[in-house]
Structure formats: structure tokens, C-alpha cells
């Protein structure tokens, strides 16, 4: 059994959110990556996709989630299943912001619709280009 202590969690700041890795292959987890997403009020993430399914449970605040062409409103206690390869964009509530717990399979990779994964297109320390996709720091 592996216990990952709070002091061992990894914090990654992106231009749009803070991702706190709670479990991942590099932290001793084998099959899944688990992270917390915290977005400030009114913050909007980029349009992107992941190559695996993700499960998001809203902890605080709320968000408008554009998922595969549909806009969904989510709030505390809601769980959203985001299918693999579905384009998505998350916009935090303008007053309350947004916090969620996310689970995805180990090895999950992100990509943008234009497949622009050059090192120059990625915020420093946020992800590493992996072919035409990105290996996000919070999921490895």
C-alpha cells in the first residue's frame, strides 16, 4: 500500500489554473492520476482534448463547460464524465471560481485542435511535448 502525504503532492501553476497532483504514476500510483483543479473567478482554460476519459467532481464554485459542442453548467457535488477526444473548455464562475477533483488513467495526454505542441506553445513547467500530444506535469 502506498500513502502519498500532503507534503508530497505536486503543485503546477498554468496560465489558467492551479493543478495539485494528489496521486500519479510518479507519486506511487500505478493506474490513475488524481489531481485538484483550482480556477480563479472568471478564468477560462484553453480549448483542448485528452486522449482518455476523465471524471471531474466539482468541489466548490461552478463552471460553464463546453464539451464536444454542448455547454454544461456544473456546481458543487456534480460529476462530469468527459469522454476521450472530446474538445472541451472550462470557464470558472465569474463570482465564485471553480475547484474540482479529476481522475484519469495513467499515461493520459492532452492536445489542442491545431496540434500545436511545440515547447514554445507550452507554459514553462506545465507539460512536455510527447509527439503530437502533451504530457501534463500533473498527470505523470
Your description of this structure?
- The protein is mostly beta strands.
- The protein has one domain (6-139): Jelly Rolls (Sandwich).
- The protein is 0% helix and 46% strand.
- The chain has a 6-stranded antiparallel beta sheet with strand order 1-2-3-10-5-8, with no helix packed on it. A 3-stranded antiparallel beta sheet has the order 7-6-9, with no helix packed on it. A two-stranded antiparallel sheet has the order 4-11.
- A hairpin with a 2-residue loop joins β6 and β7.
- The radius of gyration is 14 Å and the shape is globular.
- The relative contact order is 0.24.
- The mean pLDDT is 89.
Global morphology:
globular
Helix percentage range? under 10%
State the order of secondary-structure elements, H for helix, E for strand: EEEEEEEEEEEEE
Class in CATH? Answer: Mainly Beta
How would you name the CATH homologous superfamily?
Jelly Rolls
CATH topology: Jelly Rolls
The strand order across the widest sheet is: 1-2-3-10-5-8
How many domains would you count in the coordinates? 1
Structural class by helix and strand composition: mainly beta
Distinctive features:
about 140 residues; 3-stranded antiparallel β-sheet; 6-stranded antiparallel β-sheet; Jelly Rolls; single chain; mainly beta
Briefly say what this structure is.
The chain has about 140 residues and is mainly β. It is built from no helices and 13 strands.
Could you outline the blueprint of secondary structure elements for this entry?
Elements: E1 10-13, E2 18-23, E3 32-39, E4 49-50, E5 54-61, E6 63-67, E7 70-74, E8 79-82, E9 88-92, E10 98-105, E11 110-111, E12 127-130, E13 133-136
Antiparallel strand pairs: 1-2, 2-3, 3-10, 4-11, 5-8, 5-10, 6-7, 6-9, 12-13
Amino acid at each position: 500500500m502506498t500513502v502519498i502525504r500532503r507534503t508530497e503532492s505536486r503543485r503546477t501553476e498554468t496560465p489558467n489554473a492551479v493543478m495539485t497532483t494528489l496521486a500519479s504514476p510518479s507519486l506511487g500510483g500505478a493506474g490513475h492520476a488524481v489531481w485538484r483543479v483550482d480556477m480563479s473567478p472568471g478564468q477560462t482554460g484553453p480549448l483542448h482534448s485528452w486522449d482518455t476519459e476523465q471524471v471531474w467532481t466539482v468541489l466548490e464554485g461552478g463552471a460553464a463547460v463546453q464539451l464536444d459542442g454542448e455547454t454544461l453548467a456544473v456546481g458543487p457535488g456534480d460529476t462530469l464524465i468527459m469522454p476521450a477526444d472530446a474538445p472541451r473548455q472550462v470557464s470558472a464562475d465569474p463570482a465564485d471560481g471553480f475547484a474540482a477533483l479529476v481522475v484519469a488513467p495513467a499515461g493520459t495526454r492532452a492536445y489542442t485542435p491545431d496540434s500545436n505542441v511545440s515547447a514554445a506553445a507550452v507554459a514553462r513547467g506545465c507539460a512536455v511535448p510527447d509527439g503530437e500530444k502533451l504530457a501534463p506535469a500533473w498527470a505523470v
